[in-house]
Design goal:
Blueprint lengths: L33 E3 L18 H26 L13 H8 L7 E3 L5 H6 L4 H8 L24 H14 L6 E6 L6 H13 L3 E7 L2 E2 L2 E2 L20 E5 L3 H16 L5 E6 L18 H8 L3 H11 L5 H30 L15 H13 E3 L5 E3 L6
Parallel strand pairs: 1-7, 2-3, 3-4, 4-8, 7-8
Antiparallel strand pairs: 5-6, 9-10
């Protein structure tokens, strides 16, 4: 039988405590979150904040925007035709990527997620290799020897940890290099990113965290991901500098990133930059955005498209003529065509040696893997179009 426990003696608390006063004190965090915009969608320019960018570099950046936009449209058609697999379009986010990656040196680290086509191409990635990867060939993300670029990271929020790692290694090696890592608003709901932020501040790593807030984590709107007024303010919890910028304003993105890079090089640690932007296309080609966002919202953001905004800026400074722009459009169209042709040629070469996929895991092929390789060879055939399918069967 359970017995009732004896009463525990507790001291009597007085009914009146007017003589006790414990005031609340405001903690001075010495941090504030600012919003930066320099060039608005109407062409308005804050000349006091206008960063100094060499004229020829501005022209190169805009031409790269035209090339990336053309490529985005081409590979979307190729995916619909079944010539490549799923990929994540970059349309609408070009300024957030090019404005930030331009602020880095060649020997700095570039750590992307899966939508950073513009930044990757600025760093030298080729269209044909990107197409190869989208078609399922790992050779498409083979990083050249010596390049400080990491491959595409599909798991959401995983790559900031890698950026902290390489930037910490750079710091330990006594280098003045930095690492920039890209992620979306959805990644801020992942624990990995918060670990990266905390570790980066504790060890003072030279890391730039560039959040492309495009308002949707696939189909989940930002309003359902967090109650924070901004994503930039999450930096406050880690004692990290944070800033929110107009992500479609290339000048603002560059100015904020340049400041963060300079601080990191001087030993000031990491920075969180929230670039408020919008993806004007699908999340990936396996997605139908009409099911979760309204057409009126898309049209509103189309009016803030970063390409015409930068175009207007260049025209106003006589750095571009309409005739020259038309010439560039024809040039990038041909560049994409030539790259597609190189992709198809390279794909044929790789298809002729598909068993090569067994060669990259182990130095010496185990007997069971060798057996699997032989079974693979006996069970497939390659058509004249380079399509691999089961021997005597339909397309695989």
């Amino acid at each position: 039988m359970w017995s009732r426990p004896s009463a525990v003696h507790r001291p009597r608390i007085p009914d009146h405590r007017e003589d006790i006063a414990i005031p609340r004190e405001v903690i001075d965090l010495e941090q504030e979150i600012a919003y930066l915009s320099i060039l608005d969608e109407e062409g308005g320019l804050d000349e006091e904040l206008e960063p100094e960018i060499p004229e020829e570099d501005l022209r190169k950046i805009y031409r790269m925007m035209l090339l990336v936009r053309r490529y985005d449209e081409t590979r979307l058609r190729m995916q619909r035709q079944g010539r490549i697999g799923t990929f994540a379009p970059v349309k609408g986010q070009e300024a957030a990527q090019l404005g930030s990656i331009y602020a880095l040196r060649e020997d700095d680290w570039f750590v992307p997620a899966f939508r950073e086509t513009a930044a990757a191409m600025w760093r030298g990635a080729s269209i044909e290799d990107d197409l190869l990867y989208a078609a399922g060939y790992e050779e498409g993300i083979d990083i050249p020897e010596g390049a400080r670029d990491l491959p595409i990271a599909i798991p959401v929020g995983s790559q900031p940890l890698h950026a902290v790692g390489v930037s910490w290694a750079s710091k330990l090696a006594g280098e003045d290099t930095v690492a920039i890592t890209y992620f979306g608003d959805g990644a801020t709901s992942e624990g990995d990113l918060h670990e990266a932020w905390n570790w980066s501040m504790v060890y003072g790593t030279p890391t730039i965290f560039l959040c492309q807030n495009n308002h949707f984590a696939i189909s989940v709107p930002r309003s359902l991901q967090t109650r924070s007024k901004t994503i930039a303010q999450k930096a406050v919890a880690y004692g990290m500098p944070g800033i929110q910028v107009d992500g479609n304003d290339l000048l603002a993105v560059y100015a904020a990133t340049r400041e963060a890079v300079e601080r990191a090089r001087e030993g000031g640690g990491p920075t969180l930059i929230e670039a408020v932007t919008y993806r004007l296309s699908v999340h990936t080609t396996a997605d139908d955005p009409k099911k979760y966002r309204k057409e009126d919202e898309v049209k509103e953001w189309e009016s803030r498209d970063p390409l015409p905004r930068l175009r207007g800026y260049l025209l106003s400074k006589d750095l571009l003529s309409e005739e020259e722009e038309e010439g560039w459009k024809e040039e990038v169209k041909q560049e994409v065509r030539d790259a597609v042709k190189r992709y198809e040629e390279k794909k044929e070469e790789l298809d002729a040696d598909r068993p090569d996929m067994f060669a990259h895991a182990m130095e010496e092929l185990p007997s069971y893997t060798a057996r699997q390789r032989q079974e693979f060879l006996e069970g497939i055939e390659v058509t004249g179009e380079g399509i691999v399918r089961p021997r005597g069967g339909s397309n695989a």
